[in-house]
Design brief:
The structure is a single chain. By secondary structure, the protein is an alpha/beta fold. The chain folds into 3 domains: 52-247, Rossmann fold (3-Layer(aba) Sandwich), CATH 3.40.50.970; 268-419, 3-Layer(aba) Sandwich (Rossmann fold), CATH 3.40.50; 437-617, Rossmann fold (3-Layer(aba) Sandwich), CATH 3.40.50. It is built from 26 helices and 17 strands. The model is unreliable at 1-5 (pLDDT under 50). InterPro entries: DHS-like_NAD/FAD-binding_dom, THDP-binding, Thiamin_PyroP_enz_cen_dom, Thiamin_PyroP_enz_TPP-bd_dom, TPP-bd_CS, TPP_enz, TPP_enzyme_TPP-bd. This is 2-hydroxyacyl-CoA lyase 2.
Length: 630
């Protein structure tokens, strides 16, 4: 043994060694966080005029994005300018919520991610309702938000709030970009997450110093009257290092193409089990929800699969119109009775929430096949009112195709859909008779809806935004094909009309786009007539004006004895449309005989490039007595 090995350690030497190790670890971590090591290998190009907005635009273009909806703000200007230069159309709206609703509509109709970009602080808080609606409607949507500079966050900068905490409960993925080089990988991941599994919104925050060029950010980093001595030098070094780290490696080539999207699918064993169940069923029914319209399965193939199966279908949400206007398999009325009689029910993207009375409308004698991408939605309320025979966490559209292939040569017994269709026709005949009744004042809303339904073009897209009037429209108006009906979905949000119609018209410029508004819901987005005019996106707004929040009043008055807060006025909304550059028509009882003529004029104006608002004064009926409002 050496002499040194026999000498006991001096007091405190182990502690000192531990402290030195900790200090080295802390220093190494600090060097890493400050990007010092990264900067040895990747330099900041201080003379480059490029900016982070260009990187954002390149990623969006690579992902097939054609539109960015926005309400402009200085925090996001570089993104908007760069997108425009790359041929991405910038569509500015009059409210941030409308921008998100429009992006939601594009996502639903195009199969690509919808994109909205808004400024920091109040620009983002204005989108909260629309983002929550997209979450509950399962729409793949990218929300881009501006933010205060990285060094100024939490220091009282203009419009600086904790935006990530606000959006984490609403979005599948949230991120704040901290350097320019992070823009591409963060956006690629965000878009892939939004489209994978159960689609939904994602949020990416861009501090303003990650978007503007080096020389402009450098000016903002300049320190005036810096303290002298060691402290001053330390501050100057820190600021310069932070600036260089922001832009280090910013313009090195990066892959901007889409990442793989993960979509759950049924197993072969599950599909075979369902094939056997359907083959033995005598009275099967399919309830088709919005999920069935999601990529990758084209709507036309789903329609062909449903027609091959020959099973009567109830269509909801975006699935309305899947079978066309007059299919013998599409059953629109008496759903509760049909479900009680059915021996097999396929819930294809349909959820047992309030819309199915939490599952209570399903018969306990029925075999139930439930298919949904989201496990919580797949089994919602199954512990209380219903129980699936087969529960598949997977894509509803591809499941229906595989089910149809497994049942080739087999069709549902024809007398079953025929009997349901007879009930359908009887109910619709009764509805037409009710539409012919004369109301105490103004026009019968059912008659108005029937005439619009008959006269609208075959390629029409219907946007539903309202309560009572829109609830009636859901029974009367028949979408002509797949992806030709847009409603808010499970959240029941008012105010979607302007944004949904804007997105729909941009996706299908050749189509006639109708917004069915209640007079209450119109107030949320009537200002978007200015947007329709500026961006040459003519639509037709059919407003059922009964000067009342009727869906609420119907229950509030008999139960609580007061109409407080339910009354509106017979406002001249047609004049508002004129003021925004559109064309408005007032339709009261005096114009009832010319209703078809006025609708024809509106269609002609629309074809000539002008947005039209039909302000229809309507009376009261008992058509929707007993409908729920809470």
């Amino acid at each position: 043994k050496s002499w040194a090995s026999t000498v006991p350690p001096t007091p405190g030497s182990e502690t000192l060694g531990c402290l030195c190790g900790c200090a080295c670890a802390i220093l190494a971590f600090a060097v890493y966080k400050l990007g010092v090591i990264y900067q040895f290998f990747h330099k900041a190009e201080s003379k480059s005029p490029r900016h982070g907005g260009e990187s954002v635009a390149e990623v969006l273009r690579s992902h097939g994005v054609k539109f960015v909806f926005t309400l402009v703000g200085g925090h996001i200007s570089p993104i908007l300018v760069a997108c425009e230069k790359l041929g991405i159309r910038i569509v500015d709206t009059r409210h941030e919520a409308t921008a998100v609703f429009a992006a939601d509509a594009v996502a639903r109709m195009s199969g690509t991610v919808g994109v909205a970009a808004v400024t920091a602080g109040p620009g983002l808080t204005n989108t909260v309702t629309a983002v929550k609606n997209a979450q509950m409607a399962e729409s793949p949507l990218l929300l881009i938000g501006g933010a205060a500079a990285t060094l100024l966050q939490g220091r009282g900068a203009l419009q600086d709030i904790d935006q990530l905490s606000l959006f984490r409960p609403l979005c599948k993925f949230c991120a704040s970009v901290r350097t320019v080089r992070e823009i591409v990988p963060v956006l690629r991941k965000a878009i892939a997450v939004s489209q994978s599994g159960t689609p939904g919104p994602v949020f990416v925050e861009f501090p303003i110093d990650t978007l503007y060029p080096y020389h402009l950010v450098e000016k903002e980093f300049a320190v005036k009257n810096a303290p002298k001595g060691l402290v001053g030098k330390a501050i100057a070094w820190y600021l310069q290092n932070h600036l260089n780290n922001l832009f280090a490696g910013a313009w090195e080539p990066q892959d901007t193409t889409p990442l793989p999207v993960q979509i759950p699918t049924a197993t072969d064993q599950q599909v075979q089990q369902c094939v056997e169940l359907v083959s033995r069923a005598k009275k099967p029914v399919i309830l088709l929800g919005s999920q069935a319209t999601l990529p990758p399965t084209p709507a036309e193939k789903i329609r062909a699969a449903l027609e091959s199966l020959g099973i009567p279908c109830f269509l909801g949400g975006m699935a309305r119109g899947m079978l066309g206007r007059d299919s013998g398999l599409h059953i629109r009325q008496n759903r509760r009775d049909a479900l009680k009689e059915a021996d097999l029910v396929i819930l294809a993207g349909t959820v047992c929430d309030f819309r199915l009375s939490y599952g209570r409308v399903l018969s306990r004698r029925s075999r139930i096949i439930a298919v949904n991408r989201d496990r919580s939605q797949l089994l919602k309320n199954s512990d209380m009112f219903w129980k699936p025979t087969v529960a598949i966490q997977g894509d509803a559209g591809s499941f229906l195709l595989r089910l149809s292939e497994g049942l080739k040569g087999h069709r549902c017994p024809p007398d079953w859909p025929q009997s349901l269709k007879e009930g359908d026709l009887a109910k619709e005949k009764a509805n037409r008779e009710k539409a012919a009744e004369r109301t105490e004042r103004h026009l019968n809303p059912l008659r108005v809806l029937h005439r619009a339904e008959e006269l609208m073009a075959e390629d029409s897209i219907i946007v539903a935004d309202g309560g009572d009037f829109v609830g009636s429209a859901a029974y009367i108006m028949r979408p002509r094909g797949p992806l030709r009906w847009l409603d808010p979905g499970a959240f029941g949000t008012l105010g979607v009309g302007g944004g949904f119609a804007l997105g729909a018209k941009l996706c299908r410029p050749e189509s006639e786009v109708w917004i069915v508004y209640g007079d209450g819901s119109l107030g949320y987005s009537v200002a978007e007539f200015d947007t329709f005019t500026r961006h040459k996106t003519p639509v037709i707004a059919l407003v059922g004006n009964d000067a009342c929040w009727s869906q609420i009043s119907r229950e509030q008055v008999p139960i609580l004895g007061s109409n407080v807060a339910c009354g509106l006025a017979f406002t001249d909304y047609h004049v508002v449309a004129d003021g925004y550059g559109g064309k408005g028509y007032l339709i009261g009882r005096e114009e009832e005989g010319r209703l078809d003529e006025v609708i024809g004029k509106a269609q002609q104006e629309c074809r000539q490039g002008r947005a039209v608002l039909l302000n229809v004064l309507i009376g009261k009926t008992n058509f929707r007595d007993g409908s729920i409002s809470v």
